[in-house]
Each structure stands twice: as structure tokens, then as C-alpha cells.
Design goal:
The chain is α+β, with helices and mostly antiparallel strands and 624 residues long. It is built from nine helices and 28 strands. Among the domains are: 328 residues, YVTN repeat-like/Quinoprotein amine dehydrogenase (Methylamine Dehydrogenase, Chain H); 37 residues. A hairpin with a 3-residue loop joins strand 27 and strand 28. The protein is elongated and about 145 Å long.
Length: 624
């Protein structure tokens, strides 16, 4: 520890999100989203978006799903397992504004823009659909300036926000009305650069990366742990928080501390210095005399910071991600390897009082002074060769001493100047060489990116061509199948017609002898009925009528009732159906009828084959 992961050499890391399995995603300034593991630092996937992102979050229900919100209210959904990518429009009530920041908890996303407070959006679908499908709540009255950062509490419903005027507010996102949803609001020195949640009760805000204000937000009460806070926007803020980092120092955020006496730890550093320090603070916000740990950080500014129960992850302007253990009880949390801390990070507990009294000394840090101070011990200081408190000699003696010292010091001064000019030239040459190397590396990377884009475009073209060819083949196959089916249908119809004609001819042939036979006794059947025959016929008809009436009067069985109900339902359905449904039903019936007829023909053919086979096997029948 720490672990350094190089994501890009040309663009900065703007945002970082981590899930429970230590799978991380980052948003780079060049619109790329790399997916990587914190354990090994290896990249899993990389996505690209068309707009600048304002927030990126892992789903709480699905560990492999990532939600990203761009500056035009577009919601991007990525699934790391299947490599799928989708985009939706959130369509809030102020969709023409640009998104500044987002926060997410329990599949609910809070979105804030520069001109309105924030809309609480449910990515699964809204519980209220009065205005738009996704908007649950809209707060646009309390904040008078652009919201810079916000974060959900651990309960997933309360939200803390901070704007450029130094306003810190907390909302209950379950409530839609803003006046009812506001829980508390306080004003500190602006602008707010970071808000955060330490645990269930402790929240904080950082002003201008230099002054921290911490609150204890218990049920029904709000306590200021330390910081200069006002309850009204018009009141001036005179004091300074004891958790104060005087420039060129900066503070990226706060993390959970070690004990109740040391509840918080500051993540801070010095501008133009490549290190990050972790320094414990007591309950009043006063820092300890020396940091708990100092480790190598980023070559530029720290752009983002994310904390898990075990890890502290920072993203920098240099395109790198630095991973450090944040759990101080973890045995892997090593001792401070930097024994000579920077002078600006030592004994800084009384900065707030000095600032309030106007005694704060402005410390200008240059590259040469910082490099010199880094090489010295923590307690050492440069002593001047002459003191101003020494007694002043007379003018004659002073002139003599100066004239005597003139020739003796002229030689070494010129030699020292020549010596100092040589290393300066060497430094300039080294800088030029470094710049040339960096330019060459950038050019190489640009060429590589161009080649990658070309390869991607070629692959996409090939894929499109293959897809088009496959679609053409499918269409040709479908057409061939349809033609074959039409031919088969025509052949079947012709066969049916031939078979029907044959049947008619056979019936006509069979009917000829029967008609001749029937015509013979016609003379005998043309006689009139006798009285006895007429009585018998009438009795038969009367019996048939009685049987029919009995059947009508008898109660129906359950099967008969079901059959009657089904028949009535079919009749009603036929009456209620549309012409399209009727045509579809008739088509289905026609197809079923054709299928049954086909089966009957096949069965007849099989019988004929069986009959021919049996006749050929029987010798007697074969002779006949």
C-alpha cells in the first residue's frame, strides 16, 4: 500500500465509484469510462459516452450494473457482465438545464443543476406521475445558487446538499413539497467544494478545499461539532473553523477516525507536491502535530475522492487512481514511511485562532523552497549568517571593513555564480528533454487512439456487412420456402380435384345398375297405401314425436350443459369479433381442415399400400 493504477496519461480522473466486490469504475475527461478491479488493478472493460457526465454510480441491487447521468439529463446504463449499453431520457421538469452533480441510494437518483435545486428521480419508475414518469420530488426554491455536491445519508432517504454560496441543506426525499421536505439549512463560508456522510449521524461540508464544518445530525436535533456556522443567510461569518487548511494546503475530504476522542481524519496535502497526508483531528477540529500517514499521491490536483469501509480511493489530474487502506484497525495499515513531513503539515492546530486575530502568516511556496524543505528535518530551520540585532560599528570602520572585504569576496562570488548557472542550464535541458519525451508520448498515444478508432470502425463496417449479408440470405431462404409451399399447395389442390372427379365417376358408374334395378319394381311401388299401412305409419310418426318431446322435457346433464355453454360462448365471440379476427379465425379453421384432409389422404394411401402388399403375398388372390 498504496496501490497506483494508471488509467490515462492525457486526461484526468473526474469521478470514481466502487461496489462491494472492489470493482471500480471511473469517468475520465476524455469521455471514457474504464472498469477495473482494485485488488489487481486490471481493466475489465471500457465504455465511451458522447456527453460530459455529472455522476456515476453502481446499482445497489445489481453489483454489475452502472448508472451514469450526463449533463443533459441522459441516463446511461451499463452491465459489466454482458457488456450491454443503454440510454434513457429522464425528462425532469427542468430538462433544459445542465446537470452539475448527482447522488444515488436504493435505485433513486438525485440530480442537481446550476439553476434549480434538484429533482429526485426513481430509475425504476415513479411512485407519483403528476408531471413526468420518473420525477418523485422537485426542490427549486431553497437553493439560490448552483448546487455543487450532494450525498444521501446511510438511511437512503435524507439528502445533504451544498452550493456555491456556502449553503448546506438537508432534505427528506420522501416528501414532495419542498417546505415540508427541508430538514435543516445552515450557512458557512463559500463556496462549498465537498459534502460527505461519515456514519449515521455525522455529516460534513468543506468550503473552498480549506475549511471543514462537521455536524451531528441526530433525530430531531442538529449539533455543530466544529465550524463557523450561521442559521441565516444574511448574517456575516466572522470566525474560522478550527479544521482550517491555509493555502497552499488543501483538504479533499474527511474519513472515519480511530476513536471517539479522534473521530475524524483529514485527507489533505500541499499544492504542487506529490503526496497525500492523513491527519487525525480531535472533537474540536484541531489537528495532531504530525500526520498519521503520508504517501505518494498525484502529480496534479486531486479531482475526486471515494471512501469504502476498508479503502480510500483518490483520482487525480494525472489520470491515475491511488488506493490506500482507510481502516486504521486493519493490520495492513502500515507505519508512516515518510519520516520527514512537509513543513506545512506540522503543528497546524492554531491556524484558526491566528486567522481570526489577523496574525496568520502568508506562506508562499515555490518549487525551490519546497524541494529544500523536503530535504531538511522536520524541526530544522535555515539560520541566517548575519543577525539584525548585532551592534552597529562606526561609519569609518564600516567603510574600512567593506573596502577590505571587497577584493577578497569578488573571486568566490563570481565562481559561485558560474557554478549556480551550470546546474540551472542542466535543469533547463532536463526540462526540455522531459517535455520532448512527453510530447512524443502524447503523439504516440494519439496515433494509437486513431489506429484503435480505425480498427473499431473497420470492425463495425465488417459486422454491418455480415449482418446485411445474413439478412439477405434469410430473405432469400424465406422466399424460396414460400415458393415451395405455394407449389405444394397448388399440387395438393390439383390432386384433390382429380380425386373428387374420380370419386364422382365411380359413384356414377355404381349408381347405373342400382337405378336400373330400382326402376323394375317401380310399377309395384306406385300403388296406393292401404288403410292398415296408413295407420302403422301414423303410429310410427306419433311415437317419434313423443320421443322428441320427452327428450326436450328431460333435464340436461352436466356434459350437455357444458357443451351448450361452450356453443353459446362461441356464438357470442363470433358476434363480438372484428373483421380482422374473423378472417384470422377462418384462416386457422381452413388450415386445420387442410391438415385433417391431408392426414386422411395419407391414411388412405397407406391402406392401399397395405392391401396391395397383402394381395401380392396371397398366391390365390394373385391368380384371380
Amino acid at each position: 500500500m498504496p496501490v497506483r493504477i494508471d488509467l490515462s496519461s492525457t486526461s484526468s480522473v473526474r469521478m470514481i465509484a466502487v461496489n462491494e466486490d472492489n470493482l471500480a469504475c471511473a469517468y475520465l475527461a476524455n469521455l471514457y469510462i474504464p472498469i477495473f478491479t482494485l485488488d489487481t488493478g486490471s481493466r475489465v472493460r471500457r465504455y465511451e459516452v458522447s456527453n460530459q457526465l455529472a455522476g456515476i454510480h453502481f446499482s445497489h441491487n445489481k453489483k454489475s450494473v452502472i448508472y451514469a447521468v450526463d449533463d443533459s439529463f441522459g441516463l446511461h446504463l451499463f452491465d459489466v457482465r454482458s457488456d450491454s449499453k443503454k440510454k434513457f431520457r429522464l425528462n425532469p421538469e427542468s430538462e433544459n438545464h445542465n446537470v452539475n452533480c448527482t447522488a444515488m441510494a436504493n435505485e433513486i437518483i438525485a440530480v442537481a443543476s446550476s439553476e434549480f435545486g434538484g429533482g429526485i428521480l426513481d430509475v425504476r419508475g415513479s411512485r407519483r406521475r403528476e408531471h413526468h414518469a420518473h420525477v418523485i420530488s422537485l426542490y427549486d426554491k431553497r437553493h439560490k445558487a448552483g448546487v455543487v455536491d450532494m450525498q444521501f445519508y446511510l438511511n437512503g432517504t435524507h439528502l445533504i446538499t451544498g452550493d456555491t454560496d456556502g449553503s448546506l441543506k438537508s432534505f427528506d426525499t420522501k416528501l414532495r413539497d419542498e417546505d415540508n421536505a427541508i430538514r435543516w439549512e445552515r450557512w458557512v463560508k463559500g463556496p462549498i467544494t465537498k459534502v460527505g456522510v461519515i456514519n449515521k449521524r455525522i455529516v460534513y461540508g468543506i468550503s473552498d478545499r480549506s475549511e471543514a464544518t462537521v455536524f451531528v445530525d441526530a433525530k430531531g436535533s442538529l449539533e455543530v461539532l466544529y465550524g463557523s456556522v450561521n442559521t441565516a443567510a444574511n448574517e456575516p461569518i466572522l470566525n474560522t473553523s478550527k479544521a482550517f487548511f491555509k493555502k497552499p494546503e488543501w483538504c479533499a475530504g474527511l474519513i472515519k477516525g480511530v476513536t471517539d476522542e479522534i473521530p475524524l481524519v483529514a485527507v489533505h496535502g500541499v499544492e504542487k507536491k506529490k503526496f497525500i497526508s492523513l491527519t487525525a483531528m480531535n472533537q474540536e477540529g484541531v489537528r495532531q502535530s504530525t500526520p498519521m500517514l503520508t504517501y505518494k499521491g498525484h502529480t496534479g490536483d486531486v479531482k475526486c475522492m471515494t471512501v469504502t469501509p476498508e479503502l480510500l480511493i483518490t483520482g487525480g489530474e494525472d489520470g491515475k487512481v491511488v488506493v490506500q487502506i482507510s481502516n486504521f484497525k486493519n493490520p495492513k495499515f502500515g507505519e508512516d514511511n515518510t519520516h520527514q513531513h512537509h513543513r506545512l503539515t506540522l503543528n497546524r492546530g492554531d491556524l484558526a485562532e491566528l486567522e481570526d486575530n489577523g496574525e496568520g502568516r502568508i506562506e508562499e511556496v515555490s518549487d525551490d523552497s519546497d524541494s529544500d524543505s523536503d530535504s531538511k528535518a522536520p524541526g530544522s530551520s535555515s539560520k541566517p549568517s548575519t543577525s539584525k540585532s548585532s551592534s552597529k560599528p562606526s561609519s569609518s570602520s564600516a567603510g574600512a571593513s567593506s573596502s577590505a572585504a571587497g577584493p577578497s569576496t569578488s573571486g568566490p562570488s563570481s565562481s559561485s555564480k558560474s557554478k549556480s548557472s551550470k546546474p540551472d542550464k542542466e535543469k533547463e535541458k532536463e526540462k526540455e528533454q522531459k517535455e520532448k519525451k512527453e510530447r512524443k508520448e502524447k503523439e504516440k498515444e494519439e496515433e494509437k487512439e486513431k489506429e484503435r478508432k480505425k480498427k473499431k470502425e473497420e470492425k463495425e463496417r465488417k459486422k454491418k456487412q455480415e449482418e446485411d449479408e445474413a439478412e439477405k440470405e434469410k430473405k432469400a431462404k424465406k422466399e424460396e420456402k414460400e415458393k415451395k409451399e405455394e407449389k405444394a399447395r397448388k399440387e395438393e389442390k390439383e390432386k384433390r380435384k382429380k380425386e373428387e372427379q374420380e370419386k364422382k365417376e365411380k359413384k356414377a358408374k355404381d349408381d347405373q345398375p342400382s337405378t336400373s334395378a330400382a326402376s323394375a319394381p317401380s310399377s309395384s311401388s306406385s300403388r296406393q297405401e292401404t288403410k292398415e299401412e296408413r295407420k302403422a305409419r301414423k303410429e310410427r310418426e306419433a311415437k317419434a314425436r313423443e320421443l322428441a318431446e320427452k327428450k326436450k322435457s328431460e333435464p340436461m346433464t352436466e356434459e350437455q350443459k357444458k357443451y351448450a355453454e361452450e356453443r353459446e360462448a362461441r356464438r357470442l365471440a363470433k358476434l363480438a369479433e372484428t373483421p380482422e379476427q374473423r378472417a384470422a379465425r377462418k384462416q386457422k379453421a381452413r388450415e386445420e381442415r387442410e391438415r385433417l384432409e391431408k392426414l386422411e389422404r395419407e391414411a388412405k394411401k397407406a391402406k392401399k399400400r397395405d392391401g396391395e402388399g397383402s394381395s401380392s403375398s396371397d398366391p390365390k388372390r394373385a391368380k384371380h
